[in-house]
Write a structure and sequence with these properties.
mainly alpha
């Protein structure tokens, strides 16, 4: 393209690569949270299956959920800052800002998904 140097093109690509990583991070955390909660509960109930084990299982899911929500919340905050207009660039548009918006929306969906995955741990009383 005329007017764009090779260096500017590399910097734009580097910024977009970071944004693509941000887009994938929250749904990946949600997927691993789902996997660890349900597979972990299945293995725990198959191997231990006692009422004392249910308390440990609940606390494990709670800890894993809090960790996942913390990372997704952090990711959502950084995505919001990338997307939201700043004082000095109110009208800047482009792929960097769009990717920040997409990552923010995926972080919100992933946050809700993690909460819904963890809800059964509140109600489980036995492994049966």
């Amino acid at each position: 393209m005329p007017g764009i140097s090779h260096r500017q093109d590399e910097e734009e690509f580097r910024g977009a690569t970071g944004s693509l990583f941000r887009i994938a991070l929250s749904p990946t955390i949600w997927a691993f949270h789902f996997l660890f909660c349900y597979a972990g509960a299945a293995v725990w109930c198959a191997k231990v299956g006692t009422e004392e084990g249910i308390t440990f299982l609940r606390l494990s899911i709670l800890g894993l959920t809090l960790l996942a929500l913390l990372v997704i919340g952090w990711q959502g905050w950084h995505s919001y800052r990338q997307w939201a207009p700043h004082d000095n660039d109110d009208h800047v548009e482009g792929p960097h800002r769009f990717l920040g918006h997409a990552a923010l929306l995926l972080s919100i969906i992933s946050f809700v998904g993690v909460v819904y995955v963890a809800l059964p741990a509140l109600f489980i009383e036995t492994c049966l």
